[in-house]
Amino acid sequence: MTQKQTPYESKLQMGQTFPVTIKRLGINGEGVGYFKRQVVFIQGALPGEEVVAEVTNIKRGFAEAKLKKIRKASPQRVAPPCPVYDQCGGCQLQHLSYDGQLEQKRDIVVQAFEKYTKVPTSLIRNTIGMEDPWHYRNKSQLQVGKAKNGIIAGLYALGSHQLVDISDCLIQHKATNEVTQKVKRILERLDISVYNERKRTGLIRTIVTRIGVQTGEIQLVLITSKKELPRKEQFIKQVQTALPQVKSIMQNVNGEKTSLIFGDETFRLAGKEVIQETLGDLSFELSARAFFQLNPVQTVKLYDEAKKAAGLTGKEKIVDAYCGVGTIGLWLADGAAEIRGMDVIKESIEDAQKNAKHHSFTNTKYVTGKAEHWLPKWIKEGWRPDVVVVDPPRTGCDDKLLETVLQVQPKRLVYVSCNPSTLARDIEKLSRKYEVSYVQPVDMFPHTAHVECISQLILKKGN
User: Fold this and answer.
1) Do residues 212 and 126 share a domain?
2) Which residues are catalytic (predicted)?
3) Which residues are annotated as a binding site for S-adenosyl-L-methionine?
4) Tens digit of pLDDT for each residue in 323-343?
5) Residue 104 and residue 399: Cα distance in Å, rounded?
6) I need a labelling partner for 196 at 20 to 30 A (CA). Which of 96, 290, 336, 397 fits?
């Protein structure tokens, strides 16, 4: 065993340079190749490319390497338009043409289904993309720091504490970029201190900007380490003068040593507590900490696909598990007899109730708790759902929820997923009683490796 090798048998050594052909993309957007049957992940490499790479990490069962040279480039390789693309880590696929991204995202779903299920991959449809895949994100949360030329706002480079300034980001809505740039200048002019993470000194930690894309209303949230904000009135006045589109100026206090952005205390500095946003015919009030989809254009496509998958005739009783503030359920409500939603977060349920009332829906009921608690209770009371909609976090559905669905046996299950691997694993568990009709990938986050899916599952005959 050489000095640099790990205790188990690896075909590669640290620092070794080697040629490899890239077979596919991994779930994080990296190229995947094989050297003497050992799996190697290479960030920035594309399927079909012949490259030279250098080993940077050896782990049990695989190695990681950095791209040194491309001997044969993919025809779908493009020059990334972002000047800090290779530093920031926010996008993983700007070096791949957009048509190529849509193909590869379908392939990432195919790989997950081949690994975990027996579902024919012909049921996985082509990815629904965007007409214009730039400037789509309606919210930015940028850490603030000091550089030689003044205040910067950005993200930490991958695996480091080096802050990369990205306040003119190509995937952020242009209005959020403008607000961030101008707020940085105002903070500089007023000499308001910036938080230093290492020393835990200074005040401004994060600039959070969100736009209601359909309404044009903008909310600015300053995350500070302390409540006292020096030259507060001057700050407010200068923001209102330079940025009249900012309708809500909020402050959130987070003095903890944490990677979480928001602290517990939020209060209004000026303007309204909330901004308005619309999705289709629905309107929503967005408070500083409210969850809302980051790409509203694609959200409409995603929810329309969920509605199609639910196959509504107006008579269905629907359960919206993991309902959040009720967006998916409310999207379906006009085509259903009744919607019942649940979530473990009490504030989300309160928002869902408000949203339903605001839209004059009388066929909705929202409760705090888990579906595995409420579903058996409702069935005992004589209420049985025809359709269950699930939209779980990246970890997938709770095992107890899957068991509950298998016991309750709704005729149809609509699974909204943000992680193909956990989707495929959950579908394999559900396949005892359910058949997959189709899986529809949707590109919610162009230029990143993320892909969302809508899956329609139908109860097998004889159940």
Assistant:
1) no
2) 418, 418 (nucleophile)
3) 293, 322, 343, 391
4) 988 999 999 999 999 999 999
5) 29
6) 290
